[in-house]
C-alpha cells in the first residue's frame, strides 16, 4: 500500500461496504483472507471485529482466514 494512503479510512470503508452488501443479501457473515506476510492485517481485522478461523498454504501463499458475524438488515415494509 502506498504509505500516503494509510490511516485515511480506505480499509474501513471497504469493509463497511462488504458488510453492508452482505447484510442486504441476507448473509450472516463476511469471510476474508490475507497473506500471512501482511502482518499489519493480522491485527487490523480483529480490531474491526473479525475472528481468525484458520491458516493454510494455498498456491504457494500462506493465507490467514477471518470471519465476522453480521446482523441481518432491518425488515422494510
TrEMBL record:
Residues in coiled coil: none
Could you give a GO molecular-function term held by this entry? acyltransferase activity, transferring groups other than amino-acyl groups
Q: Name one Pfam family in it.
A: Acetyltransf_1
| Residues covered by the N-acetyltransferase domain | 1-71
Q: Is Iron-sulfur found in the keyword set? A: no
* Entry GO CC: ribosome
Q: Where are the transmembrane segments?
A: none
The organism sits in which domain of life?
Bacteria
Q: Which UniProt keywords apply?
A: Acyltransferase, Ribonucleoprotein, Ribosomal protein, Transferase
Q: What is this protein called?
A: Ribosomal protein S18 acetylase RimI-like enzyme
Amino acid at each position: 500500500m502506498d504509505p500516503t494512503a494509510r490511516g485515511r479510512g480506505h480499509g474501513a470503508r471497504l469493509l463497511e461496504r462488504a458488510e453492508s452488501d452482505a447484510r442486504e443479501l441476507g448473509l450472516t457473515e463476511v469471510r476474508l483472507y490475507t497473506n500471512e506476510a501482511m502482518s499489519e492485517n493480522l491485527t487490523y481485522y480483529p480490531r474491526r471485529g473479525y475472528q481468525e478461523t484458520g491458516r493454510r498454504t494455498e498456491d504457494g501463499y500462506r493465507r490467514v482466514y477471518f470471519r465476522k458475524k453480521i446482523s441481518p438488515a432491518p425488515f422494510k415494509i
